[in-house]
Amino acid sequence: MLLAINWGEFGIKAGQLLLSLSILIILHEFGHFITARWFKCRVEKFYLFFDPWFSIFKKKVGETEYGIGWLPLGGYVKISGMIDESMDKDAMKLPPQPWEFRSKPAWQRLIIMIGGVTVNVIVAFIIYAMILFVWGEDRVPMESVKSGVWVTDSLMYDAGLKDGDKIVSIGGEPVAYFDDVNKEILTAKEMVVDRNGVEKKIIFPTDLVGKLVESKRRRRLVEIRVPTMVEAFDPKDTSYASKSGLKKGDRIIAVDSVAVSHFDEMIPLVAKKKNGTVTFTVNRDGDTLNVTSKVNKDGKTGLGLCEMETYAAAGVFTIQHRSYSFFEAFPAGVKKTFSKLGDYIEQFKLILRPETGAYKGIGGFKSMGSIFPSVWNWENFWGITAFFSIVLAFMNLLPIPALDGGHVLFTLIEMITGRKPNEKFLEYAQIVGMVLLLGLMLYANGNDLFGWNK
């Protein structure tokens, strides 16, 4: 079975992913490089991507060979006298030299090993700071969402949530901004809503994340409930609505004589008329008229949602914009970095709990690329890159041999006990770590390509 691929969209997403990862890999490895040079260690190689058998480009400058490998699975710096992914056992058999990593005191080796992670964290908060400085921040206060939520996923319906419910709290805590609702739901056990003046408790299934992964749905669980205002027509659809006589500014008040006031009420009525026609009753500049539109095989007319600003201008909710001066942006960038890190850690904990099914969502390059928009947008690109930088820092600190965290763990043990781990043990640990990482990489990309998670 052949898959239909939009190569233009694929190219834009792949290009953004490649550029983002290249920036982060180079900066991560630079963190190791600069600290190694600071402590007068010899750096033999500095590579973007791996270069088994051959490299795309290489040039030696001084003692260091700089290059680009052909295998885009990361990058590395080869520091003399260090047991790493190069597994240069012959060099380790020789007596330690003053310029080698193994001859340096433990505290210096520790700084070298956390250099990459440190740079990734710094990069994240600089990017977030510049995003806030250049574009500012738009958020929707929860108190301004007067119409409640639009439940866009059946799993939320199954849990008991209904269109028009107003969120009171998630996980026992009030939510200040609607922008945070969807991520809070993923890690919470319950939600309290106001339904027609009465508070109701919604209990989420333990395996909510696992079910979302299995269904392969990528849309948000809930959106803000919006009125049936006509402004946009979906260019990817047949756009029957645009040819029917509907005009921007119309307000749909009925579908086939059934009164509607919100989009969620209109969608199921239209969906019933697949390959047929539907009659919209609209209010246009105070006049009421009927407009008939064809419906495609998917039960859609091609009627799209308005821009957020349009709904805000109509009083559906409020968009709170905040601008940051250059100096205000930096502490705000630091705060946002650690907030994003905290969110990621909470989601990572779900993966460690098999009953949640979150492990099924571990994805590879395809999943990473799908996060980027299909059109190039610098604000989105830098926001996603900053988040990837946080993820790269966190994952590299995990105490797994072959990762920075594994080296840090062994170094800390040495500093505490005063005994350096046997080099043969470090070699075997490195091999085990590399096998684990390779297996994880195969599993993650297998999930993307073959659905191994099902």
The gist of it:
With 454 residues, the protein is an alpha+beta fold.
Can you describe what's shown?
The protein has about 450 residues and is an alpha+beta fold. It folds into three domains: about 200 residues, no CATH class; about 80 residues, Pdz3 Domain, CATH 2.30.42; about 70 residues, Pdz3 Domain (Roll). The strands form six sheets. The chain has a four-stranded antiparallel β-sheet with strand order 11-10-12-13. Strand 1 and strand 2 form a beta hairpin. Helix 1 crosses helix 3 and helix 3 runs antiparallel to helix 12. It is elongated and about 90 Å long.
Give the low-confidence spans: none
Placed side by side, the strands forming the largest sheet appear as 11-10-12-13
How many structural domains can be distinguished in the coordinates? 3
Total strand count, please? 15
- Which of globular, elongated, flat, extended, rod-shaped describes the shape? elongated
Distance between the termini: 19 Å
Helix tally? 14
Q: Profile the largest sheet.
A: 4 strands, antiparallel
Mean pLDDT: 87
Task: Work out the radius of gyration.
Answer: 27 Å
Strand content: 15-25%
Order of helices and strands: HEEHHEEHEHEEHEEHEEHEEEHEHHHHH
Helix residue percentage: 40-55%
How do the helices and strands line up, and which of them pair or pack?
Blueprint: H1 7-38, E1 43-61, E2 64-79, H2 89-92, H3 106-135, E3 137-139, E4 149-151, H4 154-159, E5 166-170, H5 181-187, E6 190-195, E7 198-203, H6 208-215, E8 222-224, E9 232-233, H7 240-244, E10 251-255, E11 258-259, H8 263-271, E12 277-284, E13 287-294, E14 303-304, H9 308-313, E15 320-322, H10 326-351, H11 365-370, H12 378-396, H13 404-417, H14 423-450
Antiparallel strand pairs: 1-2, 3-15, 4-8, 5-6, 6-7, 9-14, 10-11, 10-12, 12-13
Helix pairs in contact: 1-3, 1-12, 3-10, 3-12, 3-13, 10-12
